[in-house]
Amino acid sequence: MRALKFIPHDEARRLRGLLFDLDDTFLDNGALTAEAYAALYRARDAGLSRIAVTGRPAGWGEILMMQWPLDAVVTENGAVAWIRRDRGLECIDTVSTKERLERSVRLMRLVQTIREAVPNLPDTSDVWARRSDHTFDIAERYSASGDEIDTAATLAADGGARVLRSSIHLHVTIDRHDKATGTLELLRRTHDVDRTAARAQYAFIGDSENDAAAFAAFHTSIGVANLRGRPSIPPRFICQRPMGAGFVEAVDALIAARG
């Protein structure tokens, strides 16, 4: 990983947008700082679209789109997205209502198995707002042990589900999207950008293992200083500062490199 100052000017100038994780990347332990929020406006004024890419629920995405200067929000690790359409918002879910219901039933059966095996592992506080996955709290309000996390993950995988781990949550889902595939599909459908071009035209900023797919997919990939876990492919660039301050550092470095 290289320092942000080594981002080539021509690479920064060809960027059309900025993709970024929320928890522990844009937010500081769940809190929004004035500095990070202001950086969104600087990115907008510099001609960069702003798309949040998060494991947080679809219900949160709808609210963020109404309140923040964003062009889109990709939620639930790529499964469900929100965009602006005319004077309102549009939810994009590639799974039909019937199939979504069937997957929810399968998922809840699996969640019950996990609950019986790991009874102290709590659901996340935002699980009620989710459409495609179920999330367990491993580090937000509850400090899960390694054995609890491993047992839950193994049971989920044995039951045919995918498991994604963020800095605070363990996600269990029947869907096959990740942050990269979900974002690339959104850009193709709503921004008319093919997948190959999007990889070079959008930068991604993240901090944890469930960002690994996006680190691998987007050429301009940036980790904030609190990068943790074992992403299979690390980001190309690393910030000196953590969380929201690192996000601000990344935005300002990209704007400076664009001239």
Q: What CATH first level of the largest domain would be assigned?
A: Alpha Beta
Unreliable runs? none
| Mean pLDDT score | 96
Using DSSP, what is the number of strands? Answer: 12
Radius of gyration: 18 Å
Summarize the amount of helix as a percent range: 25-40%
Structural class: alpha/beta
Structure description:
- α2 links the parallel β2 (17-20) and β3.
- This protein has 2 domains: 2-94 and 177-258, 3-Layer(aba) Sandwich (Rossmann fold); 97-173, Hypothetical Protein Ta0175, Chain: A, domain 2, CATH 3.90.1070.10.
- With 259 residues, the protein is an alpha/beta fold.
- It is globular.
- The protein is built from 9 helices and 12 strands.
- The strands form 2 sheets. Strands 1-12-11-10-2-3-4-5-6 form a 9-stranded mixed beta sheet, sandwiched between helices. Strands 7-9-8 form a 3-stranded antiparallel beta sheet, covered by helices on one side.
- α2 (34-45) packs parallel to α9 and α4 packs across α5 (146-158).
- Helices cover 39% and strands 20% of the residues.
Q: How are the SSEs ordered, and which strands pair?
A:
Elements: E1 2-3, H1 9-13, E2 17-20, H2 34-45, E3 49-53, H3 58-67, E4 72-75, E5 80-85, E6 88-93, H4 97-117, E7 133-137, H5 146-158, E8 162-165, E9 169-173, H6 179-190, H7 195-201, E10 202-206, H8 212-217, E11 221-223, E12 237-238, H9 243-258
Parallel strand pairs: 1-12, 2-3, 2-10, 3-4, 10-11, 11-12
Antiparallel strand pairs: 4-5, 5-6, 7-9, 8-9
Helix pairs in contact: 2-9, 4-5
